[in-house]
Every structure is written in structure tokens, then in C-alpha cells.
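Quick sanity check, B-4DMT family transporter:
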Amino acid sequence: MKPWLLRGLGLALVHVVVRVLLGAALVQWPLQGSVLRWLGLIVVVVAAFLWAGLDGIRDRRAHPDPEEGADLTLRWLAAGAVTGIVGGVLTWLVDTVTAIPVGVTSLFFEVTSGAAFTVLLVFLPATAAVTLGRFFARRQERRAERNDDWSEHSEHHVSTPATADPAWRDADAPTTTFPTVNPKQ
């Protein structure tokens, strides 16, 4: 299965479940509609953000050179389109077949305006998350490189008393006095 299709279908499932739960919750608590709608919106955005962030981390680890990485922008744009269209059709189907009032106006609205809004709900956070995921993965790589450099530096340049020349440990060891350098001469 194509990566964009898998992400699109997964997020469409999240979208439909959120809308069905939102419809059922609005029947029980009609005065809490605004809070419940915002909560549903946040769930869909966070799901896209987390999945795309993991994609960004995996891509940067697989391709340390930014020029060789996968084109995650188009992957998530296609995933957003699948999420919008499939989620809209499935939500319309749930509203038509079941008694749960999901709040669908028409199939045409769900596959046009509703789908466009869903594409934005998926694509914009996903793009930001991919960027952040790649940034954090690169940051971890730099830290690991610095730690490797530091441990390599400390292993080769620190001498222990066991390896030091025993003649220099003595208080009566020979010393050499150098003449003073006078820069005015």
C-alpha cells in the first residue's frame, strides 16, 4: 500500500470516529457544543501532527543529507486529500444509514468544502511536524557526534599516572632553566 494512502485512510478513520463521537456527544450535552467541536478538531490535528512528526524523524535518520530525503510534502498533501474525501463520504454514509446525527448537510458539501477544510486540518500541521521532526532528528545526530568527538578526545589525550615516566615523578628530577626573552633587544 502506498504510504500516502495508508496515512490518508488512517486519518480518515480518525476523522469519522471523531465526528461520530461528536454527534453522539452533542445529543447528550447540547450546551457543550463549542467545547466538544474544538476538542474534536484538536484530536484530528494532533493525530496528523504526531504521525507526520514521526515521518520527519524517520526520514532524517534514513537520509542525513536533506537533498536525498523523501518528498513528505506531497505525501501529506495526498494523505490530506484522501482523508478529506474518504472521511466526508464515510461521515455522510454514517449519517444516512444510522440514527446518529453527525451533522452532515449533503454529500456534495462533504466532498467539496468539508473535504477542503479537512485537507487543511491534515496538511498544515503535518508540514510543520515534518519540519520539526527532521530538525529534532538532526539535533540528536549532532549531539551524538559531539559526544563521540568528546569521548574520542578524552581517550587519546589524557594520560594516567601509571603511564607517566617515573623519572618525572621524583621531586629531585632534573629541570632546565631557559634564558629570559627580552623583546626590546
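Posting the structure with no commentary besides this: The CA atoms of residues 60 and 134 lie 5 Å apart.
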